């Protein structure tokens, strides 16, 4: 450990003693104020000792610092070995950064602090007005806090995100343009995952766009023992675009649609009812705490993308290929076979194809695509037979396949079956698996009056699951609710149903599908007992 770092730790310890000693006598508000003052002191000490540098030289492990309402920006020590100006020969540095920019279990509450900047408010306002955004970008004290955090409190992390943005954001823009949606929505991926394709949250949301298991299936993302398309940047962006299109159809307001992406349509509607308004800033106090900062973070992320130069932030440079080719695969293929024969690093294959969770492209089960840098495309085509034949008896024997199935069952991509123990309630079980009691009841056909039995099996779906009809408890839809006639699948509306909720019950069916098939609008009233078309057979 360096002398400077040792001195810094000692000084922090000395300054922290008075706060620790008096902590029990302070209120929560006073403690928050003390925390802010202590952080300022620490920052000042860093600047004094290290000449203003934010990077430290060793790589000692530490507790992560969480970013505002979304992702975890860990301290700059983890980036010490990755020079923003470097030009590495592979994507190893990109992988390294993505592993560090992960979701945090503890979001920083920027409502409880007031951040200050030398930049006047009128400059922020003028800059936001100059951003050519289809979505209006509001400015207020809350947004200001988030802008300062993004541009002044995490320069090293912002640099790496900007570096990744140059690779991923053009892809996102193309997808949103395809669906006729504002391209500014691309910034949501920064909030969701810091552009980490393999990010996983504490409630098992996965990928760059943080889809839950059931929602992913609803929007046609494939999840099985070999593939999790939530981790595929392109496929998951298509799913995110469809979700946002559906949500905007419901609310007709982008701030509300964006908020619903974080907390769900139901919570946004609840906030609207409580506030008696559909204006985002009026419903702001009624939204879940973790959702309130989502829109301000969205605005701050767009600001960062546009004005990072004005804040002397430079994007990290990565040696990303100018062009990536898509190769179709119709047989099972292991990444190690490709790497051994044509020399592409394994980490590159994983970075370009994160959806293949076992490092296997399962082409035998249906045509799959493999992303390769353009300079490896011709060698792959020329040596395709050799690649498939390379140690195929080792990579695809019966034992290997069984191990893959067992690994997949442990990964949480499917459902968990919990057996009720003595004294357990639905509340206890919900807290244990980070799901809601309402979902537990829905997944298992239970009501608030249901009595749990010791040994009873409770299905849990990683935060989301196929909807079931009340009283079935089987995990499948009740045959009484669906029927087939006239070339369509029909659904009989039940009390409490919503059009979006009905869409969620059927894989591959969107809200817009139901509206167009039945000549309905987002404001159409539906009544129990009425039948509506779901899809063509």
What proportion strand?
A: 5-15%
Rg on CA atoms, Å: 25 Å
Describe the global form: globular
Mean pLDDT: 77
Terminal Cα span = 68 Å
Low-confidence stretches: 13-24, 46-100, 102-107, 408-414, 463-479
- Estimate percent helicity: 40-55%
What is the makeup of the main sheet?
3 strands, antiparallel
Task: Enumerate the strands of the largest sheet in spatial order, edge to edge or round the barrel.
Answer: 9-10-11
Number of helices, counting only DSSP H or I runs of 4 residues or more: 24
How many E strands? 11
Q: Structural class of the secondary structure composition?
A: mainly alpha
Describe this structure in words.
With 537 residues, the protein is mainly alpha-helical. The protein is 46% helix and 8% strand. The chain has helices spanning 3-22, 28-50, 92-100, 121-130, 141-152, 155-178, 188-193, 213-218, 233-251, 254-263, 265-275, 280-283, 289-292, 294-307, 335-342, 346-352, 374-382, 384-389, 392-395, 398-410, 426-433, 437-444, 499-504, 511-518, and strands spanning 71-72, 102-103, 324-329, 332-334, 360-362, 368-373, 416-419, 457-460, 482-485, 488-492, 531-536. The strands form five sheets. A three-stranded antiparallel beta sheet has the order 9-10-11. A two-stranded antiparallel ribbon has the order 1-2. Strand 9 and strand 10 (488-492) form a beta hairpin.
